Structures
1.
Amino acid sequence: MEDFLMTLWPYVPFVIFAAAFLDTLCFTGLFFYGGAMVGAVLAFYVTGAVTIPEIILAATTGTLFGSATNFYLGYYSSHTKRVQHILAHKRAESVTSFINRNHLLTVLIVGRFITVARPFYSLLLGVTRLSPRRFFLFEIPIITIWVLLWLFILLQGERLYTHFFT
């Protein structure tokens, strides 16, 4: 069994990419527990299966692909009759107005850091027909900060574990 697991080590960055993608994707984000992913990444890191640059690259690109998928699902579905009907309501107009009044950064930060909002905020921004350029201009730095924050927490957890249990 150990030999089999060792043959899978080269694929660990892909597993991190897939986990970050699924954690962000609107179809799976509510069901995929990010805390379990952080624990698994820590286990991979401690055993030497993955390096810090690999974690950063895999988690950032996975999260970006998930967020981009959500954004473009919303963006290209915004022309459907059902979505147009929903967008015609005053509340939907007020949300769009809020985003367009220079509150995009607020929506992105709150959406990224609140678990139940994470799978849906980029979908919502796509539905409002936000410019993809503007979306990615703000989203890429926020995702990078998000990944670095969780990596910092992960490394602090490793230090605490080492300090108290070894």
2.
Amino acid sequence: MMKCKIELKDILKEEVTLGKTIEGFKNLISLVKNDIDSTDVILFDCITNFVSNFMIMDRDIDWDKVDLSVVQEIEDQIEEEMSNF
């Protein structure tokens, strides 16, 4: 049983080293465009952080008193970003 655990650990380690990590929350397609044709899988991790970044980065908003039009604008930007991706 220990041997199986070691083999699985080695397999996972090998797969991780074959990957590439790209970080960002805006203009995602521009971040992956050089790699998109040479890969089979793109893992989009942490959708919660992605949405949170759109809500708080480059903005000074009092979320207790935010106007709904601002919320709608942010939602539209998130939807556009995901559609482009």
